[in-house]
Write a structure and sequence with these properties.
The protein contains ten helices and twelve strands. By secondary structure, the protein is α+β, with helices and mostly antiparallel strands. It has two domains: 120 residues, Beta-Lactamase, CATH 3.30.450; 158 residues, Alpha-Beta Plaits (2-Layer Sandwich). Strand 11, helix 10 and strand 12 form a beta-alpha-beta unit. The chain is elongated, with a radius of gyration of 28 Å. The termini are far apart.
């Protein structure tokens, strides 16, 4: 017994699009059918799609290289699989895993079927796990490892394209004595307060990381030494100018700050060594100062 195609595919939980396969170039193939699952997934109606090219809420045909890969797969008699970020009818984004296969038919007409599976939750969970792995759980800024990875990228851009950058390292003066006299909850609140004080002073493109227990580092892309010093001085004054309240008691802190540009360093390790040297010199000068390394 033959079952009508539409009745069968209407029951499939994945989104399905059937289209005439030619032309795959601009403006794209004509859509002949979408199933109810596609309507639920995208928020569009079948009437919005059938008879048009599959550009509605669909990035599959938006790039010439994508169309070429699909065409090449069809020529080899294979399906084409990829992951795409699309938009719902309301403008919100979602991710799909899509498989595009050609349909063999009698005559000269050629068709393909695209089956889409919603993977938005999996993509978001993976992204969240990546953020969690790269973020300091106490302050919400980057971890030391993640921050150093950003420095590696900046170092590479400088070598290849002479893109300038500056790094700033901030260390609370006298924090070791504070830690010795207070419980971990109090020291944690000080660290969190310091991060909150630094954040609004940095630019959107600057990268903040927790470099040590009470050390914070800031990467300033597209910045040279004097502009970096201006930010470092703002941070120093902000820390010095406002006490941090812990358990009803105000505590006054200052900061030693080291400032470096990569200069002629051949490796990130050389830059970090100058970083540490500048910070050590700031401490030797009594703290509450900025030293360029």
């Amino acid at each position: 017994m033959e079952l009508p195609f539409g009745q069968v595919v209407d029951l499939v939980p994945e989104a399905v699009i059937v289209a005439r396969a030619a032309p795959l170039n601009e403006p794209g193939p004509e859509v002949l059918y979408v199933n109810p699952a596609w309507e639920r997934l995208t928020g569009y109606r079948a009437a919005d799609m059938v008879g048009s090219v599959p550009d509605i809420a669909h990035g599959l045909w938006s790039e010439p290289d994508m169309r070429q890969r699909i065409r090449d797969a069809f020529m080899r008699g294979q399906s084409y699989e990829t992951k795409l970020e699309n938009r719902h009818a309301d403008g919100s984004r979602y991710w799909v895993e899509i498989t595009v296969s050609s349909l063999e038919t009698e005559g000269d007409d050629c068709y393909f079927v695209a089956v889409e599976r919603d993977i938005t939750e999996a993509v978001e969970l993976k992204a969240a796990a990546k953020r969690l792995a790269s973020t300091d759980p106490i302050t919400g800024v980057l971890s030391r490892k993640a921050w150093l990875a950003e420095v590696e990228r900046a170092f590479s851009l400088r070598r290849r394209y002479d893109r300038p950058w500056v790094a700033v390292l901030i260390d609370l003066d006298g924090f070791s004595a504070f830690r010795a006299d207070h419980e971990i909850g109090a020291t944690t609140r000080v660290i969190q307060s310091l991060a909150q004080r630094i954040r609004p002073l940095a630019r959107e493109q600057d990268v903040i990381g927790r470099f040590g227990h009470d050390d914070f580092a800031i990467l300033l892309p597209e910045t040279r030494g004097e502009a970096g010093r201006v930010l470092a001085e703002r941070i120093r004054r902000a820390i010095d100018g406002t006490p941090i309240e812990v358990d009803g008691t105000e505590h006054h802190f200052t900061a030693s700050i080291g400032l470096v540009e990569p200069a002629d360093d051949r490796t990130v390790a050389e830059t970090i060594a100058r970083f540490d040297h500048a910070l050590a010199e700031a401490r030797e000068q009594g703290g509450n100062t900025v030293v360029a390394g």
